[in-house]
Amino acid sequence: EIIPRNRWLPFSKTDALFIEDGKINSCMDMEFKSIENEVIDGASEDINSTYDKMVMLKKRYSKREE
């Protein structure tokens, strides 16, 4: 009811991957035929953490230039 069926992606034609320790891993849940949300959430946390560190560096160096 939320997304019309004609817009669904077939599970067999879908893939989601992540890289960990230099290895490519799937984050597809074969039992439920979906993407493992916790893997995506973990990636988002890592990205946000890295971004926050970059912002802090920019602020630190911007103050030195003033």
Lay out the secondary structure:
Layout: E1 17-20, E2 23-26, E3 28-29, E4 34-35, H1 37-65
Antiparallel strand pairs: 1-2, 3-4
Q: Can you put this structure into words, describing what you see?
A:
The chain has 66 residues and is an alpha+beta fold. It contains 1 helix and 4 strands, in the order E-E-E-E-H.
Name a few traits of the molecule:
66 residues, alpha+beta, two-stranded antiparallel sheet, two-stranded antiparallel ribbon, 1 helix, 4 strands
Helix content estimate = 40-55%
Distance between the termini: 56 Å
Query: Strand content of the residues, in percent?
Result: 15-25%
Q: What's the total count of β strands? A: 4
Give the neighbour order of strands across the main sheet. 1-2
- In oligomeric terms, what are we looking at? single chain
Shape: elongated
List SSEs in N-to-C order.
EEEEH
* Total helical elements: 1
Are there runs of 5+ residues with pLDDT below 50, and where?
none
Category by helix and strand content: alpha+beta
Largest sheet report: 2 strands, antiparallel
| Overall residue-averaged pLDDT value | 88
Rg value: 19 Å
Task: Please sum up the structure shown.
The protein has one helix and four strands, in the order ββββα. The chain has 66 residues and is an alpha+beta fold.
